[in-house]
Amino acid sequence: MKSNLLKKLFLVFICSSFGGKVVAQSNHILWYNQPADYFEESLVLGNGKMGATVFGGVNTEKIYLNDITLWSGEPVNANMNPEAYKNIPAIREALKNEDYKLADELNKKIQGKNSESYAPLGTMEINNFQEGKVSNYYRELDISNATSKVSYEIDGVRYTREYFVSAPDQIMIIKLTSSKKGALNFDIHSSSLLKSNAEVKDNILSMNGFGPIHENPGYAVPLSFILEKERGTRFTSLIKIKNTDGTVVSTASSLGLKDGTEAIIYVSISTSFNGFDKNPYTEGLNSKANASSNLNKAFTKSFDKLRQAHISDYQKFFDRVSLSLGKTAAPNLPTDERLLRYSDGKEDKNLEILYFQYGRYLLISCSRTKGVPANLQGLWNPHLNAPWSSNYTMNINLEENYWLAENTNLSEMHTPLLSFIKNLSVTGKVTAKTFYGINEGWAAAHNSDIWAMTNPVGVFGNEDPVWACWNTAGAWLSTHIWEHYIFSQDKNYLKNEGYPIMKGASEFFLQWMVTDKNGSLITSPSTSPENKYKTPDGFIGATLYGGMADLAMIRECFDKTIKASKVLNVDAEFSAKLETALSKFYPYQIGKKGNLQEWYFDWNDEDPKHRHQSHLFGLFPGDHITPLKTPELAKASRATLEIKGDETTGWSKGWRINLWARLWDGNRAYKMYRELLRYVDPDGKKTENPRRGGGTYPNLFDAHPPFQIDGNFGGAAAVAEMLVQSNENEIQLLPALPDAWDSGSVKGICARGGFEISMEWSAKMLKKVSVFSKNGGKTTLICGNKKQDITLKKGQKTEIVW
Ligand code: FUC
């Protein structure tokens, strides 16, 4: 007893004396005992618009700065291939004749330009002039308050830095201190990969520059940027030091502090982006004036005041959800070592919680800008030539970014995507007409960018239809509108903004679908993201008719549009048309291997283990396949997942965990969750036996590889999906609870119907549940064999001992 107590006291002592910080094994702190050498080791901060990637170096602190609105290009000319649609009948004819080779060739005529790219704003370097041996280095990111810290000692002097990026004040703050008076000596430089000019005036280090106007000519071709002085998005960064003592010094292009003890660095950035349809040069915002006004306002405020405002703004969102998974015996280790240990199969429940909450942290930090959703890298991209242009890939990646938005209680963070869909519905009208010959509704294809381009990509006939020609994004995205409504119960949004967009997506597909030889509705031409079929005579191709993924997504789109029209009590006639169409859809087919067929015929896949599984859309994120409603289809979905296996890219793992959760197989979902959290070495790191593949980097970023943020979000969403599943009428509690999580509690998970769930369980049995209703309503709670109907008034909460 006594020795246990002593041990505990000793542990508390060790933890609280380490680097002066409390670092007990944590579910909210990422920490390291060395600076980051690689991007995938850095710690990221953001306010939904501005992003900072902090390396925490001793002699040189490197911080990449991003603004989510800084892209190449300018508003898209959606009418880029006005006669493309004239080729559709010939493709249909080729498909009717089962001439797949010709169909694939002709499908290339339905292509337009590629997307623009997300651009890095710049790099800020803080050079420190302390020499000597470094000891007690410590670096952390605390996701419970969205602040980061670095501290170390040199010759007995302790240096600290604290960083945050504030949404209420639109500013990045860095506070530097030294434990010895006057020991702080540093200077700051700004640079950018873009065309820019840095200078110091009135003790402000400013950098002004502009983004390229064009373009990524194709993934296969090296990027070629054209810089024109009077075109493209302008950007500004401003840096100013507030010192308590010492002297602020400057050169023509650097700003510094001499012999100080404490200083605060204010960093303000801005761009001229003024909306997807406004020329960022001739109709742009004044980036200089905006950056300066944010800087001046923040500069009058104290560090404590700014910090407090930042933390309370952030915690308003973050604190809505908490998760506990019971006792853990995992030791307290730096996050990189912790991940390695976990990858070797060891238990670490708090790491599992940390990864879940980190997903929520990342979404709050990168998704708060109207019309500009989180991109492929969230908003943290250092590259001029980023992987996949750091753009929006809409055949999975963009949507997966938002799977956690509603169920993990971050509905506000969904709105950048929802407003972006609205923009897509504008350019998408032109795309529907010019590429597909459809005069009603809107269409969107595989890629997009900040300019809401909707055309199929491929550089006008140069790229593979297997990804370039997919045109079902409108169906998929419109389901996000329904999800937002059904979780939030915001009828005004549905009526005034959401429903017309959903209707437009449905209108397009109603016209686009054709009948097969037996009178069933299908799409033609179709492709299935981004897999290829093998016909019985050996042809490997992408273009086909009746792809099952298209049908699954359009089914969801029609179904949700009908539901929305009923909620609003409008468009009964249109709804009836959708009902009739749904009854004629070419039905799902079960293949010879017991799998859910991806192709119209029971063909083989070129790659049976392909990372995409879009034909399982109805199981997740859709809901028309469930183990109860459609047991045969659920079984076939399971067979498909078994054939594909579990080894895949980061985002694909994220998706499969959700699929297993929807199949109510908690242990398989958990197995794959563990595999998503498998340690992956930074991309550039040369080690003898590098750990590569889909998984998680030392900074807990998702590894496709390379870094893509979708896997972080998909993985976090899946945790919620394992604990709570819901539809318009029912809430399943603990539907896919893994054995490893036999006891625990959760607070604040959202369910469809506008409910918020908190509950406790032990020995895998639900003990207590409390349900809060946002807008009043009824639902049925289900757990195991027990069901309970509840009706609540708006704002009412009930607690049930189960
Ligand atoms: C899709 C995926 C790739 C990658 C890219 C950004 O094309 O098939 O794996 O994630 O998007």
UniProtKB/TrEMBL annotation:
Q: What's a single GO MF annotation on this record? A: hydrolase activity
Q: Give all residue intervals belonging to the Glycosyl hydrolase family 95 catalytic domain.
A: 302-723
Keywords annotated in UniProt: Hydrolase
List, alphabetically, the Pfam families matched.
Glyco_hyd_65N_2, Glyco_hydro_95_C, Glyco_hydro_95_cat
| Domain Alpha fucosidase A-like C-terminal positions | 725-791
All copies of domain Glycosyl hydrolase family 95 N-terminal, residue ranges: 30-274
Instruction: Name the chain's protein.
Output: Glycoside hydrolase family 95 protein
